[in-house]
Design a protein that fits this description.
about 210 residues, alpha+beta, Gyrase A, domain 2, 2 domains, seven-stranded mixed β-sheet, about 30% strand
């Protein structure tokens, strides 16, 4: 199956039946598309109590202020990007936080920007996922260095990305990779090539069991 008509899919033009078993006779890596309702960039003063309270009132989570951390709750993830910048992803269908954030933070020096049309998010999992990703970036992806609750901006196969380890109920780690939509096709094809020896497959969009 090749997706050719969906403007919302980062797998446009890629044959999703192009799974390939590696030298071990199985699939060492898998990829899946992650549906996101909304990507929101938030700028504000993390030392201002009114700002922190206003964000929590809308999102239900405390804004992360520790560098390279992420907070998750009920389909919403809030990633620290800088001392005054965060990226929020909303995975709940028909849920929007843009207007609520603007209303809750009215009167404060903030910026709320909708990035939904220009971003892509996909998952990379499997026993060889760390090795495949490490072949394209210098970030230490070992569980001891890149644990649950972490996130990091880095270069992956010449593309600027945000990587976040997510964990399934089984305990298996899935790396969520956020990339600009215009680079998504290049990046996925690069990872497919890097995973050729280990084998790879595409899976249906499924966020169940992810923390």
């Amino acid at each position: 199956m090749t997706i050719s008509g969906s403007k919302h899919s980062q797998f446009v033009g890629i044959d999703l039946d192009a799974s390939f078993k590696g030298i071990a006779g199985d699939y060492g890596v898998w990829f899946n598309e992650i549906s996101v309702t909304e990507f929101v960039n938030l700028r504000g003063d993390s030392t201002h109590s009114g700002f922190l309270t206003g964000v929590q009132r809308v999102t239900g989570v405390e804004l992360p202020v520790i560098p390279n951390t992420v907070v998750r709750s009920g389909g919403l993830s809030c990633h620290w990007l800088g001392p005054d910048e965060w990226l929020m992803t909303v995975k709940k269908p028909e849920v929007s936080i843009m207007q609520d954030l603007e209303d809750s933070l009215s009167g404060l020096h903030i910026a709320v920007t909708d990035l939904t049309g220009g971003q892509s998010l996909f998952g990379v999992g499997g026993r060889q996922s760390r090795d495949v990703l490490s072949a394209a970036c210098t970030l230490d992806l070992h569980a001891d260095a890149f644990a649950q609750g972490s996130c990091a901006q880095t270069i992956l196969a010449h593309s600027n990305v945000l990587i976040t380890p997510a964990f399934q109920s089984s305990g298996d780690c899935v790396f969520e990779v956020l990339v600009r939509r215009s680079y998504a096709d290049h990046l996925i094809r690069w990872l497919m090539d890097a995973a050729h020896e280990d084998g790879f497959e595409f899976r249906l969009d499924d966020n169940s069991g992810l923390d």
